[in-house]
Design a protein that fits this description.
Elements lengths: L6 E3 L9 E3 L1 H13 L4 E4 L3 H8 L9 E6 L2 E11 L4 H20 L5 E10 L19 H6 L1
Parallel strand pairs: 5-6
Antiparallel strand pairs: 1-2, 3-5, 4-5
């Protein structure tokens, strides 16, 4: 979870005032950006995130930790990937997409984006591999393979 000190965005025209961004907002942007990358199954969340999701509240910042030191932003992103994807390619895509989204939305410069792969999730059952309720216990293997 990010520190509670707001980050002041620089503005060439400060006549109208300053703009501050809560670091939690940056975590949410990074979490959404990471989820948009092909190959990411889901973000790694805490027990609290999982309980919140049971009650219908989606935590977009889950799986992202932001450390702010002076002018540096360091993101740690914790993800589960789909089985069979290239881990280095997906990790690089996550880093590039987060950097792009944060830069476009806030004009802040990121020092580091560390991607931590927490696990790999196997493919879900396809429609062809559904269970035949009329034949739950086939007599032999060949009969099971015919479905």
């Amino acid at each position: 979870m990010a520190e509670e000190t707001n980050i002041v965005l620089t503005n060439d025209n400060a006549v109208l005032g300053k703009t501050e961004v809560n670091p939690n907002v940056l975590e949410v942007i990074a979490g959404i950006a990471a989820n948009e990358v092909d190959g990411v199954f889901r973000m790694h969340g805490s027990i609290g995130n999982q309980v919140s999701e049971l009650f219908g509240r989606v935590e977009h910042g889950k799986g992202v930790k932001l450390v702010v030191n002076d002018d540096t932003l360091v993101f740690d992103v914790y993800v589960y990937l789909n089985y069979g994807v290239s881990v280095p390619k997906v990790a690089l895509n996550i880093q590039e997409h987060i950097k792009s989204q944060i830069s476009a939305m806030t004009e802040l410069t990121i020092t580091e984006i560390n991607v931590h792969v927490e696990g790999v999730i196997p493919e879900k059952m396809t429609k062809e591999s559904k269970v035949d309720i009329n034949n739950l216990f086939p007599d032999d293997i060949e009969e099971a393979g015919e479905k």
